[in-house]
Structure formats: C-alpha cells, structure tokens
Write a structure and sequence with these properties.
The complex is a heterodimer of chains A (111) and B (115).
Chain A (H helix, E strand, L loop, with lengths): L3 E4 L2 E5 L4 E7 L5 E7 L5 E7 L5 E4 L2 E5 L5 E6 L8 E8 L6 E3 L3 E6 L1
Parallel strand pairs in A: 2-11
Antiparallel strand pairs in A: 1-3, 3-8, 4-5, 4-9, 6-7, 7-8, 9-10, 9-11
Chain B lengths: L3 E4 L2 E4 L5 E7 L6 E7 L5 E8 L5 E2 L8 E7 L2 E6 L8 E8 L6 E3 L3 E5 L1
Classes of the chains: A mainly beta (111), B mainly beta (115).
Amino acid sequence: GQQVMQIPQYQHVQEGEDFTTYCNSSTTLSNIQWYKQRPGGHPVFLIQLVKSGEVKKQKRLTFQFGEAKKNSSLHITATQTTDVGTYFCAAGDGSARQLTFGSGTQLTVLP
Amino acid sequence: GAVVSQHPSRVICKSGTSVKIECRSLDFQATTMFWYRQFPKQSLMLMATSNEGSKATYEQGVEKDKFLINHASLTLSTLTVTSAHPEDSSFYICSVPGQGAYEQYFGPGTRLTVT
C-alpha cells in the first residue's frame, strides 16, 4: 500500500513565526489531503490537492502539491495560538476513497 | 461537509467484555464508512471499510472476529470490540466520505479504556 512520510514530527514556534510541514511519498499519489486535529479532538478536513504542481491558499495557509505528485507541503504564515494542533497529510487512493495518513506534525505556538 | 456523530464519546470497560461504538451520518446517506484507530501521539490507522448491506473489508492485521462491523443502514455503522483487552485501549474514529471527490468527514471519536 501507499506510505507517506511526514516531517517534522514536532514544531515549536513563537507566535508570528511561519511554519511548514512536509509530506513525501515514494510513489505517485492520486491526490493528497490535509487535516488538522486539535488536542483531544478529531481530524478536520482542510483541503485536497489533485493536480500536479497545484497550489491552494486558505487565508494564512498555503498548500502545495509537487510536480511529480510525490510530495506536498503546508505552510502557515504568521502563526497564531489558534493554529495549535497536529497537522496530517493523507494520501487518497482514488476510487476506493481510502486514506493513508502521514505521521503528523504537532505544532505548538508560544504566545 | 458531512455531519458525523459517534456514541459513546468515552467508555471504560473491564477486560473480557464487549463494547459497541456507533457512527452516524446525520445529514446524508453513506454507503461506505471508514473506521480508524489512533493510539496516543500517533497517526490514524485505517482498520476497516464498512459497506452498507455487505461485509466489511478489513485491513491487514486487523482481526475481523475481534472487531465486528455492521453497516445495517445508510446512516449507521457500528464497531463492536469483542473480548476487549487493555491493549485495545485507543481512540476509535469513524469517517464518512464527502460528496466531493476525495475528502472525508470524521466523527468526534470514542475513547476506549479497557481496565
């Protein structure tokens, strides 16, 4: 099956600093999705990327899908304390709609 | 997006007993639902795909006789952990595919503690 590596595992930033998490796969991905899980909560869908080289923005969040569709990144500009949580990438397998989750990056934002 | 509920949100049971967890899609019908397990500080691992009106599909390493899945209607899937042991203690989360191409919507999760 698909395997998705995600780094870093943990990231502590000062409020106002930027943050980036990366996902890599050894195989070409059909699509990649990003989810956010707050402490004690459940994953919440953020975005999906399907096209090679795709870039999508949601306010301070920028999502990229690599040209080869093997890697993806999530960048947060000027972090806020509300950004705290674990960010997961998840590779979809297309037709079966199953997801393979990356290991997640736990973001801590220090006020 | 889809609204998904899970019940109970938290359960503590004794070793050897069985626990049933319900997952409901509240605002649309779902022929497929997914069950995940998440241990503390770890990622979500897909356990099985629940299919309405037919048998669930289990991932490799997941015992189908231990984790019984029933998807009897288009809005309800249940996961029963049979003869639970302390190592089954985990966060169990279900998800429902969205109406779009790929996204999934997760229930709030059930935290199971087996003593």
